[in-house]
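forwarding from the other thread:

> can someone predict this with zinc ion?

sure thing
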Amino acid sequence: MKRVNLVSLLDQYNTDDRCRDALEAIRWPDGVACTRCGDTEVDEVPSRNQWRCRGCKYRFSVMAGTIMHRSHLPLRKWFLAI
Ligand SMILES: [Zn+2]
């Protein structure tokens, strides 16, 4: 995992959309991959901030499988907490 300067990250990523982009870059530095089968052939689901795997049809978000997945907190609060 890449090292990230959190202070500059917080300056830059002050909206949930930008936080999501940053999380994707941190989680999938080589591109988005399915959280179930690992396939990198995925399509974005634009309205729902999710990805859909072409292989297994699984839908997932950047937070799937992380502690944040079950949270309803805005991503910005997680950034501050982390
Ligand atoms: Zn898959």
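Residues 3 and 58 are 29 Å apart (CA to CA). thats all i got for now
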